[in-house]
Amino acid sequence: MATIPLGEDILLARHGANIVKLRQDRKNRETIAFLRDGQTDSASNLLAVSAGVLTPAASFSHGAAKYLNDEAEVSRGEVRSLIKISLGFSAVMGIVFGGLVLALYKVGGNEALQSLAYMGGVQ
After folding, report:
1. Among 93, 123, 96, which residue's Cα sits nearest to residue 113?
2. Among 60, 79, 82, 83, residue whose Cα is nearest residue 70
């Protein structure tokens, strides 16, 4: 059973700016908050992680296994299609902008490219 310290976070969520001072009680594994109105509150520093709760690494590997077995919400075919569309769009836009730069060079020469670079902040 793993433990995660979190007493300060719990107390901050409960009381926020009303906390004057926080103190750690290591013997009882809790955090004690002293509040503006003179009261105190405490919260455990331990959170018991049960067997049903996944750690982030376990959750990621579980999601990866679901994806590889094609059981995820987004299928592998959909991801492949999206990648192909993205690569195709990038290639088309590269050709379009490359053609525009080439046309600008043919019309205005080096001076046009230098002014374009100057306007873009490249020096």
Report:
1. 123
2. 79
**Token pair 């793993």 is at which residue?**
2
Hey, what are 90's tokens? 């990038």
For the chain, the first-to-last Cα distance in angstroms comes to 59
Strand partners, 50: none
- For 4-33, write each residue's pLDDT tens digit: 558 888 999 999 999 999 998 889 889 999
Q: What is the DSSP letter of 119?
A: H
Tokens 């306007």, residue?
A: 119
Tell me the pTM: 0.45
DSSP 73: S
- Written as one letter, the residue type at 97 is F
